[in-house]
Amino acid sequence: MSDRWVSGRQASGRRVSGRAALRRVGPARAAGAAAAVLLCAFPFYLDAFWLQVGLFSMAAAIGAIGLNLLSGTSGQLSLGHAFFLAVGAYGYVWLAGEPGPGLPPAVAMVLAVCLSGLAGGLFSPIAGRVRGVYLGVATLALVFLGQHVMVNAEGVTGGFNGRSVPPLEIGGFTFAETDPALVVLGVPFGAEERLWYLGLVLLAAVWFSARNLLRGRPGRALSALRDSEVAAAAMGVPVARYRSAAFVVSSMYAGLAGVLIALAFRGIVPDYFGLALSIDYLAMIVIGGLGSVGGATAGAVFVTALPLVMGRYADQLPLVAAPGATGHAIGPTEAARYLYGAAIILVLLYVPGGLGGLFRRRVRPPTPPVRQPKEQTP
Amino acid sequence: MTAAAPGLRVRDITVRFAGLVALDSVDLTVEPGSIHALIGPNGAGKSTCFNVLSGIHRPEHGSVRLDGTELTSLAPHRIAALGMARTFQNIVMTSGTVADNLLLGRHGHSRAGFAATALRLPHAVREQRAQLERAREIAELTGLGTHFRTPVDLLPYGDRKRVELARALCLEPRMLLLDEPVAGMNAAERARTAGTIGELRTRFGLTVVLVEHDMGLVMRLADEVTVLDFGRRIAGGTPAQVRQDPEVRRAYLGAPSPQESA
User: Fold this and answer.
1) B253 is in which domain, residue-wise?
2) Tally of domains in chain A
3) Do residue B99 and residue A5 have CB atoms under 8 angstroms apart?
4) H helices of chain A, where?
5) Domain boundary pick from B110, B138, B172
6) Which residues form the ABC transporter domain (chain B) (predicted)?
7) pLDDT for B53-110, tens place per residue?
């Protein structure tokens, strides 16, 4: 959480590890910069399919970072994340679209995020009264409530068939195909290419803000809530306020993810925002490793990209039928679900820190042994 | 660190857990600047008393006044803000390093909210740096300076107990509640912690209330002792007076249970 603070100012006993810390900051920074450059170059080399995969992964990563803050850091189990994603997605579509107020899409996007936060805030009085599994079941109700509203409030949501998503426009720049096609360095920039950069910027902003939160005062208060509410309260943390703040912030991230998902799909339907989506998000943060931003991102990419990529290469995989094939063969989507089911079990059994922990363990040297005073008592 | 040491006046506190009377009309007066020990056999209600003082349990009736302020209707974090800090009998710590734990203790002394922290606004960054310095000072003071960056999971038991003490000190309290501060420690660690507690009192004018089974430590450190048995106050006075009290000898000192003599 706080490796940035490790420095040469340490007392001499820890000097060695301090130097090791400096040595490892270098490669980590370099790797980060290289990854950023690589990600920015992708639209010039990858086709629309891979950009779509990346886009969905980025949106999922934003949502997973939000859920991680709520369930991973503050320890409040939520099965209702799909609901907050839906509030963001439908909020954007309604605010920017017709029927609806038809606001400028950029404004609609910001308002949709706020709307999700508001939904989280409205739910938090309930969240303040139930804990653990009971909270999980209470949040489950949100998913069913959301489904009901999405299917029945046809004037706003378009009902069962959903609605098409108005493209985002910021300062005259449209994140969709335009008539005189935009060509950058000989590559035509369609919706995917443009949204790719939008996704990158949003993910970077979310990554940055969530890491700061986790490393700062609010993050410490939230993880104290997870470890012991009584101790947190005795240390001066207003428990109820922080529990609901975790819901609000996490829902805002979910709302942003919902907007990005809507933009990537270009059409949204109630079916997508079901219980399975909530479970997917829980799978992401568990596979990625609870409590870390990098882990949530890794888990999100894994869970999102796996079914899509397997679908694409289904014909080359043994035992997996092509999409749409009839008979008893396992389709690519099912195969991907089995695989990530297996992945969760493997991670739980062998990698307690999740994918994020795996990465950390590889990058960081083992913690130096601690001076062990002679102890007689256990 | 503090202006004037406060006095604590506990009057007629009763706590019941589903028919079990944990505290029965308990009175307790802690003089400002003193070290007050709360002793009694297991189940006497010592920890329950601490939980009432820090606002975790609300008593059925009675009053707790810290410098005239009634505490029984306040939430724990408000009581903490009034300058009451505590440690726990079983170590309760958040994951992360010693620094993370101490900074949690600085929560009430810092302001940075969600937005300012997320955006790394300059004042939030400055505040974090200042709080870190303060936490480091307190770590040095309690002998944890070399472990400042060590994850608490890796610390030996005695040092973890000290982290709890240091974290409570980070609140810069006027009154410190210590629930068995030396339980499970070896002789050297006990002596060291006892020294620290005495030093803190003289240096910062802290008022200390202490639950402890180590009678040697209690007799040496405490200015005054209150004895509880089955939720009732059975004796009180200076350590010497309490040691002579026949009721206390019967309830507690005369028949130490096996794990206390271990």
Assistant:
1) 1-83+175-262
2) 1
3) yes
4) 15-45, 48-67, 81-96, 105-127, 132-152, 154-157, 191-215, 217-227, 229-234, 239-265, 275-288, 293-312, 332-350, 354-363
5) B172
6) 8-255
7) 999 999 998 999 998 889 999 999 999 999 999 998 877 777 788 999 999 999 988 8
